[in-house]
Design goal:
There is one protein chain. By secondary structure, the chain is an all-alpha fold. The protein has two domains: 72 residues, Serine Threonine Protein Phosphatase 5, Tetratricopeptide repeat; 89 residues, Serine Threonine Protein Phosphatase 5, Tetratricopeptide repeat, CATH 1.25.40. The longest helix has 18 residues.
Length: 181
């Protein structure tokens, strides 16, 4: 049997999601903010607010919201996913356009910065394999570029997607091991 608290929780989440999908971002964010004021420890409202704020293009605000959540919420899979998406967004914040990166890579397939930035673009466009391929190529060319940042990003992707794509991630883990050892 559903408790009144669960029904209210689902109702707020559904209303906010419906408003967001309909394009009324201000209404969606307002609903969540009001709900959080009544229950600041609700397990999903803060994460929903951070995600929707991020989806409206306000990365710094979304990061601040996520950072302000209780530790129990910041350590969930969804929070880690958001944090990784924030990282991809930061990588491309000052990057050239995606097509310019592709052009650069046609001229120099081992241009590390372009590979790294293109991987972030691919992840934000849900092109997981293309992103991981870019990072593997970068690692093949230079395993220690900027402290192993490509490897660190690839490991973050593995962690992010292991539960949803275990076979694919395991195949890429083996490729990474083959490069490193």
């Amino acid at each position: 049997m559903e408790t009144p608290t669960n029904a209210i929780s689902q109702s707020v989440s559904q209303q906010a999601q419906a408003a967001f999908v309909a394009g009324d971002h201000a209404e969606a964010l307002s609903l969540l903010k009001q709900a959080i004021e009544t229950d600041p420890n609700h397990p999903t409202w803060g994460l929903d607010l951070a995600r929707m704020t991020f989806q409206t293009g306000r990365l710094a605000k979304a990061k601040a919201i996520l950072a302000s959540l209780p530790k129990s919420q910041r350590t969930t899979h969804e929070a880690k996913t958001l944090s990784t998406l924030f990282q991809f967004s930061e990588i491309i914040a000052d990057a050239p356009e995606m097509n310019n990166l592709k052009d650069t890579l046609q001229q120099n397939p081992n241009h590390l910065e372009s590979l790294y930035q293109l991987a972030a673009y691919w992840m934000l466009h849900h092109q997981i394999e293309k992103a991981m391929d870019c990072l593997l190529q970068s690692i093949r060319f230079d395993k220690t570029d900027r402290g192993g940042r490509a490897q660190q990003l690839l490991l973050a992707i593995f962690t992010l997607l292991q539960d949803d794509h275990p076979q694919q991630i395991n195949a890429y883990r083996r490729q990474l091991q083959g490069i490193l050892f």
